[in-house]
Amino acid sequence: MERIYLLLSQSGTLPARVLKWFTGAEYNHISLGFSKDLLTMYSFGRRYLYLPIPGGFIAEGRDRGIYERFPDAKVALLELETSQEKKELLAKRLEAMYKNKKRYRYNLLGVGLAAFRIPYQRKEHYYCSEFVRDLLVEIGILKGEDFERIVQPIHFLDLEETKMIFCGKLSEYFAEK
Known about the structure:
The protein is an alpha+beta fold. It has a single domain, classed as endopeptidase fold (from Nostoc punctiforme) (Alpha-Beta Complex). It is built from six helices and eight strands; from the N terminus they run βαβββαβαβαβαβα. The protein has helices at 14-23, 66-69, 84-99, 108-114, 128-139, 170-176, and strands at 2-10, 29-33, 41-48, 51-60, 74-82, 105-106, 125-126, 162-169. The chain has a six-stranded antiparallel sheet with strand order 4-3-2-1-5-8. It has a two-stranded parallel ribbon with strand order 6-7. The protein starts with a strand and ends with a helix.
């Protein structure tokens, strides 16, 4: 079996604090990656480090993006087992998306309406947890029925398939490595 990693986080930025106020959730962002070193994680979020908008498909990680700016972000690192074939399919899909990253947009209206429990999806528009769910379901790593129509990062903690391997500050995780 192969493994992929889901990093749930609460950075403390103004948008993250607003989401926390609306949802009450401990984590309001999720990224997807292939290794425990967290050097490259994929998600939907801010394209520019100091500007919350515009958002879109991004690569972030230990040394770049929001995690570089907020090393003391509260995180939960989840491990998810999958087959080599599905991991390779996921890698190819992410590579293709990254090559065309300008085409994808952040689903700002969708995340706003989700706070009021109103689902809203548009083609090639995602917020972070929507992206991770849709991609993992599309590849067949997770089942669609495991999720509500409106998905939050916190929902990934409840899946039988995920195993938490770390919970705490991101800087503490890297200090252990």
